[in-house]
Amino acid sequence: MIAVLIVYLPTLKLGYTELDDSIFIKEQRDYNRDLSNLVTSFKRGVFNPTQDVYYRPLLLDSFILNYQVSGENIFGWHVVNVLLHLLSVLLLFILLRKLKVSELSSFLLALLFAVHPILSQAVAWIPGRNDTLLAVFVFGYLLAALEFTEKGKTSMLLLQSILLLSALFTKETAVFAAPAAWFLIVFIEEKKIFERPNIILYSSWMIMGLLWFFVRSQATLKNDQLQLSAMIQTLPSRLIVLLQYLGKIFIPVNLSVFPILDDTPDVYGFIALFILAVVIFFSGSKNFKRIAAGLSLYILFFIPALLVPASLNDQDFEHRTYVPMLGILLVLSETVLLKNSIKESTQLFLGITVCVILSVINLNHQKNFNDPVSFWTAAVKTSPHSAYANMMLGARLDKTDLKKSEALMRKAYALDSNQKYINYYMGVMKQSHDSILASEHYFRKELSISDYYMCYFHMARVAFEKNDKPAAIHYLEVFLDKDPSDEQANNNLLLLYLDTKQKEKAKTQVQKMKQYGITVPSGIEEQLQ
Predict the structure, then answer these.
(1) Average pLDDT, rounded, for the chain
(2) Which residues 6+ apart lie within 8 Å of 487 measured at CB?
(3) What pLDDT, in 10s, does the model give residues 208-224?
(4) What is the pLDDT of residue 258?
């Protein structure tokens, strides 16, 4: 607990990264304010009520509850993230002890988990709580399931069912929680597959899974983006990610806030695999069933990340390692690193020394989450071939370093001209250089890709330049339907109404502007009398 607080208290001073956190806290403020949405969360997607494939209602509910206390002050959101990590660390320690890992080994492994820099994104980045929250439910579920197999208490059966269902409603990864529990029960606890308590457990898992599937099927999700054939085709090319994550666990020198497969070196993964094989080989008394169970958990909990098509998400975020890390810790408990003839006091000293080094790396890595410029600068540095990272950094430098901003935008466009939002930024850049008509191509392409509402504001300028005032009016009306309080757009629309002799619409526009506290240009109201 002390280690968690020492390493992660600095995260309480971190600001927004403007990667999803600003969406969940600022853009969804109206949703978060309404407590009745605690139920609505079970009927919609995460980012969008209908145009979304991700179904994570308890994550949304955590944001709603967090907002009631903290509002848009990000300090309170970071406090919750740290507390969730602290709870996960404690549950992990108890789970390792439950799996008969020695007290010293459990302590050192839980300490490693508490401070390891590959997990810092799960704590330092607000949306990373998806995995800490998942871990709380998964670790708790595994504990309760193991307890039920030992003592057969109805209370434990009910508890593990509730925790499994909660995990499923937190993140899709939880579909592999039940198979993970099976590996622990059969391989480590060495229970017979068809013992009566196990059959009861299997039945409860099936019921919870069907209940989750039924509720999810009623939600307004865009499931057509997750075609089974596309997911299976994605798998072979993404298997290397398992090694890349392993490399970051054993040799955390190439951490990234925004990693992509092509920019992540494979060499560290192969070195890590070799190290793991060596420390297993030289272990005096190996339990191969425990090793097999650990490796199975590591792979199982990573499967969802391996199946996501690149067209949907091509980032390999490090917070995804949070729950799979359990599997690696179980394997490490069977290696010469913890099973040796070295005195316990010496083991403790060596273990703490390693964790201190990891803590320093962690604290240094946290600085990358301090603000948007720090975050996206680190993203471009470690993932130079990410069009999205280059675009996002460019968008944040347009006020301080316009030359570099434009260079980053052009690089992003060259990397992927179909990247969401890049055509919008290219259009804005054209207009800033008085190439107004040339910008139209980019805005139309962006609208076909993302239907980003800001394009309509700039398309109005294109239409005005072409002296097509009806089209300019249409674009401004569409834009103000999305952002009704924008002062410039309201003024422009009012002037166009007047210019096209639409007096009644101009009067209505004046009333709307007053409603939003926008100053009406002097003389216009008298003109409309």
Answers:
(1) 94
(2) 518
(3) 999 999 999 999 887 66
(4) 96
pLDDT tens for each residue of 424-479: 999 999 999 989 999 999 999 999 998 999 999 999 999 999 999 999 999 999 99
Helix (H, G, I), strand (E, B) or coil at 260: strand
Question: Residue 61 CB: number of other CB atoms within 10 A?
Answer: 20
Q: Token match 């097509």: residue?
A: 468
The domains of the chain are located at 2-369
Q: Provide the residue type at 449 as one letter.
A: I
CB 354 within 8 A of CB 115: no
Apex CA 301: angle with CA 295 and CA 305, to 5°? 120
d(Cα 47, Cα 44) in Å, to the nearest integer? 9
User: How many Cα atoms are found within 13 Å in the side-chain-facing hemisphere of 507?
Assistant: 6
Q: Residue 337: which residues within 8 A CB-CB, separation 6 or more?
A: 279
Q: What tokens were used for 330?
A: 């179980």
Whether the Cβ atoms of residue 108 and residue 117 lie closer than 8 Å to each other: no
Q: Is the pTM of this model over 0.90?
A: yes
Which residues 6+ apart lie within 8 Å of 437 measured at CB?
Answer: 462, 465, 466
* Spatial contact of 123 and 8, defined as CB atoms under 8 Å apart: yes
Residue 226's pLDDT band (boundaries 50, 70, 90)? Answer: low
3-class secondary structure per residue, 233-246:
HHHHHHCHHHHHHH
